[in-house]
Amino acid sequence: MKTLIEFINEKQHDFPFATGELTRLLHDIGIAAKIVHREINMAGLTENMGYQGGDNVQGERQKKLDVFANQHFIRALQMGSQVCAIASEENEKMVVFDNPNSKIGKYVVAMDPLDGSSNIEVNIPVGTIFSIYRRKTNQGDPVSDKDLLQPGKEIVAAGYILYGSSTMLVYSTGNGVNGFTYDNSVGLFLLSHPDVKIPAKGNIYSINEANYIYFPEGIKKYIKYCQVDDPSTDRPYKSRYVGSLVSDFHRNMVVGGIYMYPGNLKNPVGKLRLLYECQPIAFLAKQAGGKATDGFHDILNIVPQSIHQRSSFIVGSEEMVTKVEDYMEEYSQDFRETLEHEGVIAL
Ligand code: AHM
Ligand code: MG
């Protein structure tokens, strides 16, 4: 079987004038993924469960494993000289590498080192999400926010690591999506899911329905549509919500379905972070033939105004996401205004 490293090296030749920097960067992510995998696997046996004792910038209590994953991904990327700065869910400001090698790095990275970490104690899958952009400033110049505040359509590569019943690394450099399963016995990621395509429609919807009363009318109507008895369209659909974006998205990517964390009355722009959760997942969805929207705007066209900006997020099978957009258009024009009022700017 093909290993991740063999595959990345081979793919380098798809890019004319490639210098190997992106290849090395992806290698480094693969190495950090193995370290984090090992730590998560041992979570019940070592002292690494529970809270670290601090809050992150969103006021959420950091888990020890959030901090561990953050440190290891940052360290892996700092060792190489391809990345000059990182935006992470766990750091208020972007982390700038100012050692002489990294200073001239061509890329910036946005990441959520351990998404869904509230699930760790109960042994439910968690994930790492990352995206890579070419910096906007000249190599060697001071890094600025504009290097990171780029819309998803500028992504050079993105992916996730799913620490589930098996650990998988799934990524795209803009030529389709490929998935690799970690073989513990040899310590290698092996190509197990070549050229993943999201089925155009599915019969699974994932949403935290406890927030139902706060949802925009278009989302409420869509949920009712999913629940109608109509065997000719496979309805009622199945409801599946892990509460761990990478898991829910991965399932929908493999068998088809839709994941929704829409803005709602309490949080108009929802919960998920645009830069390091929505954009990379939207990029992968599109590369696999799926789609992502905030209800009205293609996620890949939204221009982040700040590193930790949140976004309404609906992603998955193309036909299902389009249906939600139709419902939003018909029933939730007020929500479009809310998004604009909240400062959502789309190209
Ligand atoms: P986190 O980045 O703090 O882990 O939050 C993101 C997670 C997603 O993985 C998941 O889909 C969602 O939050 C669940 O939120 P909720 O518990 O409100 O349904
Ligand atoms: Mg997260």
Could you characterize the architecture of this molecule?
- This protein starts with a helix and ends in a 6-residue tail after the last helix.
- It contains 10 helices and 15 strands.
- It has helices at residues 4-12, 21-41, 64-79, 100-103, 145-148, 217-226, 245-255, 274-287, 318-331, 333-341; strands spanning 51-55, 61-63, 83-88, 95-96, 107-115, 126-134, 157-163, 167-172, 178-183, 188-193, 204-207, 238-239, 258-261, 291-293, 313-316.
- The mean pLDDT is 93.
- The chain is α+β, with helices and mostly antiparallel strands and 347 residues long.
- The protein has an 8-stranded mixed β-sheet with strand order 4-3-5-6-7-8-9-10, with helices on both faces. A 5-stranded mixed β-sheet has the order 12-11-13-15-14, with helices on both faces.
- The chain has 2 domains: 4-193, 2-Layer Sandwich (Fructose-1,6-Bisphosphatase, Chain A, domain 1), CATH 3.30.540; 204-341, D-Maltodextrin-Binding Protein, domain 2.
- A hairpin with a 5-residue loop joins strand 1 (51-55) and strand 2.
- The chain is globular.
- Magnesium ion is lined by residues 89, 112, 115, 277.
